[in-house]
């Protein structure tokens, strides 16, 4: 067994997403997975006798990121929908691979917003698979810290495959919500796109009853929102966050800002789909009509994020890996997308760190403070002015 020693990272830069410029010439002492102190390298003071010194010159310390929209049991890629039907044992292996990818990309926290139902051999009942992943990872300090939603709750006729709970009216919706919380879900995920694009799947009162149930049991409710009509129902019903929010307007974002509703952006999905025009033969990505549709949806989604940002809505950042086509080590792509949408690089990094922590209700997530967890990674470049620096990971403090 390796006995952990205090570790000093010397002469790094430090990117604090709540500030706007890098701190240079910084030394950081970590011990037993906590940050002991952060001091100027020129004035470190006394060091522990057994300290391990890492020359971090030329690199930048960045807080571990939060992927606020992920699906840890699914691999992503251009066949992402088909992969949901893979056998549970394979999906559990996929989750371990994703755990590696997340960590190596500097992602400390993953918020799992939906996993397939699968029979648990231990009790013969069908539970959301990510609950088992959470249990496995809880005791492993090298794995991402996760919070999981259980499975998706959707109206019938929306998502194929029988991997989730379908609820077609208010009582069924409330029962589905209660089942997920009984199974141990940390929060609930409702799918607010209905079988018809122009109609929400449930009434505002139906959704409000779920929000009241969840809040009464200390859990939050989030909602997938591809279209405006579903977004309106979710916001009126008081959900805590909207995922994607691809079609928001000025009224909905104003109400979100008033209520403190988070938006979890997933704009990089469209960049990924655009890349499939070059790398796949799938008509929906390759055909002129398909490309046209993607460009149109992407422009509307960027506009939604711009409206939300200007209205003061708190924005957290997600890849949608697994439930969409990105992979688990692609969160930097979303930070780049937020900058394209008009956020300053420092604001986009804050979305991928502290805002994600606020959404999770985890005040230590995405922050670097003395006494706090040593959850940081080191990159080359300045992510407060250049989001592409986040791709250039050199090392990750919580991994060997
Ligand atoms: Zn998703």
Question: How does this structure look, described?
Answer:
It is a single chain. By secondary structure, the protein is an alpha/beta fold. Helices cover 36% and strands 22% of the residues. It contains 12 helices and 19 strands. The chain has helices at residues 80-83, 88-104, 129-138, 170-183, 204-216, 228-237, 250-259, 268-279, 283-286, 288-311, 331-340, 345-360; strands spanning 7-14, 23-31, 34-40, 52-55, 60-63, 65-70, 107-112, 117-119, 126-128, 145-148, 153-154, 165-166, 187-191, 220-225, 241-244, 262-265, 315-317, 376-379, 393-396. The strands form 5 sheets. Strands 1, 2, 3, 4, 5, 18 and 19 form a 7-stranded mixed β-sheet that branches. Strand 8 (117-119) and strand 9 (126-128) form a beta hairpin. Helix 2 packs across helix 3 and helix 6 (228-237) packs parallel to helix 7 (250-259). The radius of gyration is 21 Å and the shape is globular. It starts with 6 loop residues before the first strand and ends with a strand. The structure holds zinc ion. Zinc ion is lined by residues 69, 71, 113, 320, 323-324.
């Amino acid at each position: 067994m390796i006995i952990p020693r205090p570790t000093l990272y010397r002469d790094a830069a430090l990117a604090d997403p709540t500030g706007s410029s890098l701190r240079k010439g910084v030394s950081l002492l970590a011990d037993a997975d906590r940050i002991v102190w952060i001091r100027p390298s020129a004035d470190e003071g006394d060091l522990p006798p057994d300290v391990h010194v890492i020359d971090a010159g030329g690199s930048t310390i960045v807080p571990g990121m939060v992927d606020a929209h992920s699906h840890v049991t699914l691999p992503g890629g251009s066949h992402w929908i088909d992969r949901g039907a893979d056998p549970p044992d394979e999906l559990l292996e996929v989750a371990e691979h994703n755990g590696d990818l997340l960590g190596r990309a500097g992602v400390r926290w993953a918020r799992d917003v939906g996993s397939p139902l699968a029979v648990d051999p231990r009790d013969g009942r069908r539970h959301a698979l990510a609950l088992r992943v959470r249990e496995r990872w809880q005791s492993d300090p090298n794995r991402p810290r996760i919070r999981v939603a259980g499975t998706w709750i959707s109206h019938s006729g929306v998502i194929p495959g029988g991997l989730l709970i379908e609820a077609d009216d208010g009582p069924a919706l409330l029962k589905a919500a209660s089942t997920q919380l009984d199974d141990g879900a940390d929060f609930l995920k409702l799918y607010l796109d209905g079988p018809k694009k122009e109609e929400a799947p449930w009434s505002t009162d139906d959704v409000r009853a779920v929000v009241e149930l969840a809040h009464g049991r200390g859990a939050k409710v989030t909602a997938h929102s591809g279209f405006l009509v579903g977004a309106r129902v979710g916001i009126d019903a008081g959900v805590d966050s909207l995922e994607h929010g691809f079609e928001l307007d000025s009224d909905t974002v104003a109400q979100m800002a008033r209520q403190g509703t988070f938006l979890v952006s997933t704009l990089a999905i469209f960049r990924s789909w655009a890349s499939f025009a070059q790398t796949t033969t799938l008509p929906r990505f390759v055909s002129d009509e398909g490309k046209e549709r993607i460009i149109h949806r992407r422009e509307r989604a960027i506009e939604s994020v711009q409206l939300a940002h200007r209205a003061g809505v708190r924005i957290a950042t997600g890849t949608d890996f697994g439930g969409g086509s990105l992979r688990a080590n692609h969160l930097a792509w979303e930070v780049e997308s937020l900058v394209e949408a008009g956020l300053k690089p420092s604001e986009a990094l804050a979305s991928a760190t502290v805002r994600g922590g606020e959404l999770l209700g985890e005040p230590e997530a995405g922050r670097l403070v003395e006494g706090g967890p040593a959850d940081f990674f080191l990159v080359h470049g300045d992510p407060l002015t250049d989001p592409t620096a986040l791709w250039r990971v050199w090392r990750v403090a919580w991994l060997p």
